[in-house]
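fyi for ur records
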Amino acid sequence: MRRSTSYRLLRRPTTQAPLPKYSLPRYVDPSPSAAHRKLPREEEADLALKNTKFAPGTRQTLIALFLLTIVAVPLVQLVGEFRAAGSISRLPMVSIFKSLPWLPHSEDLKRVERTLENESLVSQWLLPRVQYLLTVLLGAGNEQVYLGHDPWLFYRADVDHVIGPPFLDPVRMKHRLQASGVQPDPIKAIADFRSQLAARGIDLVVLPVSVKPSTEGEMLAVSNANRTEASDALPNPSFNEFKARLEREKVRLFDPAPFLMERGRNGHRYLETDTHWRPETMEVVAE
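which gave:
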């Protein structure tokens, strides 16, 4: 009995890799850490998909809901347009596809896609209700707008510019060059533009306009303590370097931010629900 127990203990499964049979291990022998090595993500995902267990009817239900969603949107559009037009040949959807050339380019397909999105009956009915849910009930804003203190609205791209990485970061400029193929360094572009204007007898004065969150940040802050900290100008981390490099390039620059911040002690500088200056702000800068 003792021998059989010892034998079973020796044969117990283990997670450790077996020891090599030779004094010097061969390349084909697994290393001791091989048993604990993490799987690549592709293999891990493949194993997860193959070993996922579904309750009876779950897969069929998900597939049916997916197909129903795909079919329902164009079906609702077709029925709505037919009730308004009264004839299949007069359907706006048909005229949109008729406008495509025989060999459409990517621009043609994008144009048709935008038109279908703008004229979608489902979108026209659903978007206002989703907007109301996100903004009024949940206070979360939407994909383009952050909600500030009522009724202040902030353009999401402006907020991302202020809190985002420096726009003069070499990595970002390299990505900008690869994405657009234009001069990624704004200082070099402005200096070249200054030289072109100077050759024609025109003097260039650069007036950087701070985005709304950088001068009205207190209306976006959550707490009173944050509102106090946001009462000063909040430029992008690269803005001071931007001004310094322009000065080294002998480019004339007028930064109205200090004047706007001083004026902000007696009133706001931007419109509450827009990205533009107030009329009185434009008058102050012009003076």
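The chain has a mean pLDDT of 80. thats all i got for now
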